[in-house]
Every structure is written in structure tokens, then in C-alpha cells.
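Backbones bend. To wit:
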Amino acid sequence: MKLMFASDIHGSLPATERVLEYFAQSGAQWLILLGDLLYHGPRNALPEGYAPSEVAEKLNAQASRIIAVRGNCDSEVDQMLLNFPITAPWQQVLTGRQRLFLTHGHLFGPDNLPALAAGDVLVSGHTHIPVAEKRDGIIHFNPGSVSLPKGGFVASYGVLEHDYLQVLALNDQQVIAQVAINP
């Protein structure tokens, strides 16, 4: 199974178009969106190409292939524009070998873990900082932000393929971080 992850779009049309272009080329079965899709939020600057309704239209074209969770900037008003559910605070994907616990990161995260077993994967966004590492038996994965990267990182997204989780740069698909999920 191949999965693609994107987080913290914050209404950026150019970032959305790039993500969807890579998704179409990737062969991934699902696009997992980790929240903060349409609104930029009160603490963030407007991202490049801020166009929430156009972002919604672009994402709706892939609605049947999207799994999403709610971010701290997402609301019921956003849900009214989207044809796929975004109000769940978390989701789970079972790969056959482990569980991927999907969340935005403001409710559950590295400092507030849900009940996970050794080898499970916490997949979150929220910080806009890419992470791919194993800590105390749990794999932590954050694809960063496709529109408003922080911490000196570039815009990025994630992929799960061939037992590896990778964070890739949105501009050139270079690997920023990587962790094996089935060593």
C-alpha cells in the first residue's frame, strides 16, 4: 500500500495544486490530509495564493480518495465546502503490520500520545516541522507543511512506500527525513 500525506495547506491554491499533481503521479491509493485545510488561522500570515474556495474545489475532485482529520483551524463552515469528512479529530489506518494513528497534532501529539503499541505510527501535522523518527518504540511522523513551513524547513509532504515513511520537499521531491516502519 502506498499513501501520501499532506498537512497544513491553509488555503494555498499553488500548494494544493502541487500536492494533487504529485498525488496523481505517485500511484498512492489514498491522500491523507492532516488538517488545517482552508483557513490560514489567526497566527499565520496569508500563504501564497490564498484561495480557500478554489482549494476546496480542487480537493473535492479527489474526495473519494481522501482520508482527512480536523485541524485546529478547521470548522463546520469549512466542512460545508468539502465533499469528504474533515471533522474527525483522529482516524486510524491499519497496514497489516501496524496501526497508523492520524491526527492533526493539537489534541494528540508527541507530548500527548494516544494509547499506541510498540511499532505503531503517530502521524500528525500542526507544528509545520517535518519529523520521521522512532522514539520509545513508537514511530513519529510529521510531513511538515505544504504552505507555511516553519523552523527553517521548506514546504513538504509525506509518502509511505516500501516500509519507509519519507518527508519530501514540495519544490523538488528531495528527501528531508525518513524512517523505516518495518525494520
The longest helix spans residues 13-26. Residues 3-180 form a domain with the Purple Acid Phosphatase; chain A, domain 2 fold (CATH 3.60.21.10).
